[in-house]
Amino acid sequence: MNASAEGGAPPPVCFSVNSPPFNYTHSIASAYFSATFSGLGLSSNLFALVVLVKSYRRTQSRSRSSFLVFLLGLVLTDFMGLLVTGSIVVSFHVTHFNWRLLDPRCHFCNFMGVSMVFYGLCPLLLGAAMAVERFVGINRPFARSARVSKSRAWSMVVSVWVAAGCVGLLPLTGLGSYHMQMPGSWCFFLIGSRPLDMTFSLLFSLTGLTSLAVSFVLNTVSVVTLLRVCCGKEAGSRRRDHEVEMMVQLLGIMIIASICWCPLLVFIAETVLSGSKLQVKYLLLWLRFATWNQILDPWVYILFRRSVLKRVYPKLDLSRGSIMTLYPGFTASLRRLTRSSLGGAASKVDEGGALDGTDRPTPRRPLPPTS
């Protein structure tokens, strides 16, 4: 419900649409649910963070280490996102504090709004950055091996954080605005049909959808290229366990992000473009879907590691020989479909040597002396 300002003074911007106190008789979530939800996500990300740090210190492969940098950035972002936003929501459900009394100038509401946008866009942008890194690593191995390092990978992660932060700060400059959202436990940008609100809503929605589209296209090309190389004549000379493992983890991250985020992003774009009234129940439903992304992301790395998969299925071998010999019919069909492009793909990989996980060029045999 909207409350009129006391003494006829206009309410602060963040309370101009929805203003506390609200009727909490039919609260949609309890403190136990919010606390359990946040606790599950925090513990999952913390566990994944510990495992990632150990793997990062042990790895010797440059391609593997740069990929782990992106995973560390993703897990750290998800952990901080749940810690910041979850603590606010849980505190509200426990105390039912009055936002108008606690935050009369909307600073706290703006902080949560910026946090929601920042921690929402970061996983999507990092997923796209990881797809670009793997695409270059598989399709342009020689160029990548000379350029990518741990410091460069960290600089890309920081660039993603800066870009997401700049988008989150735009409503504070006048492009859109952050408002209290029902049932009064959180703040988010106003999803409306006014020009500035519509512009920022579409910016948020299209940025997320574009990131997912880029991830889908580049990951598809990378998987096809990896399969082509696995069917090459000299593919059996090097093991590609790390490459297969990284692609499986990246595909899992992309699929989870698409399932969790697409409903909310499409809902926001559809609402502002159609000019229809915002359906609060669907906004809350799709927001919870999106929050599951932060909980499921760490389990992709935890469960889809080679060591875990081999414990579950001891006979599992990610090398080319074991995978392809399991499906000889598939291998023969794939070879026929990709024979025309095998030469170019195999030659590029042989020159760069990136698909063996070491980024070292493959040694060539010396030419016989001429008489």
Structural class: mainly alpha
Assign a percent range to the helix content.
55-70%
- The end-to-end span amounts to 94 Å
Unreliable spans are 1-7, 319-331, 340-362
The overall strand count is 2
Task: Tell me what the structure shows.
The chain is mainly alpha-helical. Helices cover 70% and strands 2% of the residues. The chain contains twelve helices and two strands.
Can you tag this structure with a few keywords?
globular, single chain, 12 helices, two-stranded antiparallel ribbon, 371 residues, mainly alpha
Outline:
By secondary structure, the protein is mostly helical. It is built from 12 helices and 2 strands, in the order ααααααββαααααα.
Question: Which helices and strands occur, and which strands form pairs?
Answer:
Blueprint: H1 31-58, H2 62-95, H3 99-102, H4 107-139, H5 141-147, H6 150-169, E1 178-181, E2 186-189, H7 195-230, H8 241-274, H9 280-303, H10 306-312, H11 320-326, H12 328-352
Antiparallel strand pairs: 1-2
